[in-house]
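Teaching assistant's notes for section 4

Start the section by putting this record on the projector. Ask students to predict, before seeing the second block, whether Spermidine synthase will look compact or extended. Collect guesses on the board.
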Amino acid sequence: MIKRFLSYFTPIIEKKIPSKVSKQLEVTWNSGQLVVDTEHTNYSYGNLEKVLKKGLQFVGYEKVRAMNNVLVLGLGAGNIIALLREEVKFNKQIDSVELDPAIIYIGQKYFDLDKYSELHTIHQMDAFEYVLRCQKRYDLIVIDIFQDANMPTFLFENYFAERLKRILNINGFILFNTITLNELEKRRNKEYCALFQPEEYSVRSHPKLQKYNEILTIKKLQ
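Reveal the predicted structure now:
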């Protein structure tokens, strides 16, 4: 494919798709690989794939494989599902939550998301609402929610953290992908980590992934 070849020299836009959540999404060939970008950041696949893969490695592939279920808040085009199925070899139930129908469409049309439909349920709704109503408990909760390069403020509020604690199993993990572009956002992450009591949770931060990403891994001890 000529676009794929040319993308090794310069990114080639395959399709621009309007989004009510992120204004516009661009499916782009970059170094021979299809990725999804917004105006200011890589949104799915590409560098984000490297960040999410690192996050799963921090938790441990063997630990993830032994888990019974996973909740994904922020499905995007399905990069995390591909990693869980193909890289980690996790073969149990995944529940994914995604607000934006445009990015779900992109995942299905350009990234073969539907091939992971077995034991994978997509909930097209707001993540806050899903967590608020959720009656299930999970062994792993992956949070990867962005609106362009911004993160919704509710993600860092104590009320939301408390709801996450309620639906996380003992010995389960939260894997939280964040962006820290400035000192204010670095302080925001530290304040978020402080919401998890050290006698009940083991919290680790993994900064400077792909320069601005910081992964937080939180294990529930009791």
